[in-house]
From TrEMBL:
Predominant localisation class: membrane
Localization (cell): Cell membrane
Pfam entry (one): LysE
Coiled-coil positions: none
Protein name: LysE family translocator
Membrane topology: Multi-pass membrane protein
Domain of life: Bacteria
InterPro entries in UniProt: LeuE-type
Amino acid sequence: MPLTLWLSLAAICAMGAMSPGPSLALVLRHTLGGGRVPGMTAAIFHALGVGFYALLTVLGLGAVMVRFPELFQLITWFGAAYLAWLGIKALRAGRGGALTPGAVATTPRQAAKEAVLVALGNPKLIIFFVALLSQFVTPEMSLLAKAIIVATAIIIDGGWYVLVAVGLSHSRVLPWLQRHAHWINRITGVLLIALALRVVAGPII
């Protein structure tokens, strides 16, 4: 995979990871409720769940593209609509949303369990990855290239939420995030809507 193409993939994965939602609320809750270790545990196990969905999507996407091109196109447009909906939701989130969860006592084991359940219990991740990976997957793509795509999704998702957990372990970070939550949500919303338009426009390859 060319470096420029991988950088595009990494940027899109980062936008998906940084978008406000239940995953961010999960990491915040366990970090605030148990400290750095439960927060990082939640981040890592959530990334493994994301990787599972990314793997399923990559392995099945090429076959769908070849056998059912019209169905694949419909799925892609539906995925683009979902990305746009996420963007609109972020724009409307204001100062609230995932940045104001209630902190409860927690443990690393509980954090790992809940992180996997949040990831695997969110079938919308499949829609996200279909819209995302349709820009990069081709029917003739090698297994190594597919593995790179899945690994990129895991590392970026896990890396982002680990940084969130580490940052939130410092008491000054969360108040700053809460003060600037409306700008974070607005920027994320605009980027997600732009991504939806890019998906509709066609593959990057």
